[in-house]
Amino acid sequence: MSSSSHSISRSQYNGWRGYLCFTHPQKFPKISTLNPLVLVAGPTGSGKSALALHLARKFDGEVINCDSVQIYRDFNIGAAKLRPEERGGVPHHLIDIADPRENFTAGDFARAARAVLGEITARGRLPILAGGTGFYVRALIDGLFEGPVRNEPMRERLAAREQRRPGSLPRILARLDPGAAKRIHRNDTNKLIRALEVIVTAKRPLSEVHATIQRDALHGYEILRFGLDPPRADLYSRIDARVEEMFAAGLVEEVEGLLAAGCPRNAKPFESLGYAQTLRLLDGEITREQAIAETKMMTRRYAKRQWTWFRRDSHMIWLGGFGGGERTIAEAEQKTAHFQEQFQESSV
Q1: Is 181 a domain residue?
Q2: Which positions ≥6 away from 277 have C-beta within 8 Å?
Q3: What is the pTM of this model?
Q4: Is the dihedral of CA 334, 336, 339, 343 positive or negative?
Q5: What is the pLDDT of residue 151?
């Protein structure tokens, strides 16, 4: 059988491989003993959900959410969740699983995602991880270091200090650990607090703590990583339009309902884009127009940070368009089909 001959079916491939690979090993690509996992990542508004949904339909897959706001129940409009009727019958996991009052961490996500991942694999279906929360992706794939236990009194003092004197935590971190200060964005209060908590408790720089503790990396999977990379100007236009749509669709009313139902203002998802601005609007600090303008600006900045985060992943395959674009879908389909050829059918 010539390597340039017409393509054969998957069942033919598996049937003949065992007989012929001994005499013609170069004609048979390596069959992976691992399980397949597809990642669809990229900046907010780039169409990750659309591409993940399409690939799930095409390759008998199930989608695992990797967005830190979609995790929470009742936070719908600002999180841009796909409504159940928009999911096309494809199972979507880790959406609406946490109460907004809970402190749902990246470690919690990694544990929940690994459990779901195993269930999908056991069903013989393709797991597709979709979302833009880079820290969640890293927690699942690379694992997190088991640092010192949380010190709630210290965390509360640090949070109160930052509230009284904005910018004080980045300055403290820069003095104690300049390397960590360069890696953590000055507006990411949660990461700043955790970094300082670890440094003070361990009595050494964060980088040294990381170097001495083994991460619990994901095992048993080979990962195909897609990154969406639409033209920046087009993405920013889409972000602006989506923010307008969110407010028009009732974001303010959703937040009013959450507060009336007893959701505390310091709930974690209220820190996210759109929700934080809506709280300020309801408090009379800014107008509706200012809330919309600020949400657009902050979302564009967040998209830029997401690009920077995922660019550090040398395994990422970048697709130059939006997730719903025909050329993007065609390229992702072709690469996913080739990727799956590495894995033996479950019946073999």
Answers
A1: yes
A2: 286, 291, 292, 294, 295, 298
A3: 0.78
A4: negative
A5: 85
Clarify whether residues 130 and 160 are in a common domain.
no
Model confidence band, residue 289 (pLDDT cutoffs 50, 70, 90): very high
Handedness of CA 103, 272, 118, 308 (dihedral sign): negative
Number of domains present in the structure of the chain: 2
Where are the alpha helices (H) located in 23-150, listed in sequence order?
A: 48-58, 106-122, 134-141
- Residue 213 has a pLDDT of 65
Amino acid at 46: S
pLDDT computed for residue 189 by the predictor: 87
Among 212, 229, 251, where does a domain finish? Answer: 212
Element (H, E) at 41: strand 35-41
Confidence grade of residue 25 (pLDDT, cut at 50, 70, 90):
very low
Based on the domain organization, do 111 and 233 belong to the same domain? yes
Distance CA 107, CA 226 (A): 23
- Any alpha helices (H) in the chain, and if so which ranges? 10-20, 48-58, 106-122, 134-141, 152-164, 168-176, 178-183, 189-202, 206-212, 232-248, 251-260, 275-282, 288-311, 326-340
In a domain, 17, yes or no: no
Residues 6+ apart with CB under 8 A from 109: 66, 68, 71, 94, 136, 139, 140
> Does any domain span residue 24?
no
| Separation CA 201–CA 28 (nearest Å) | 54
Above 80 in pLDDT, residue 32? no
> What is the rounded average pLDDT for all residues in the chain?
88
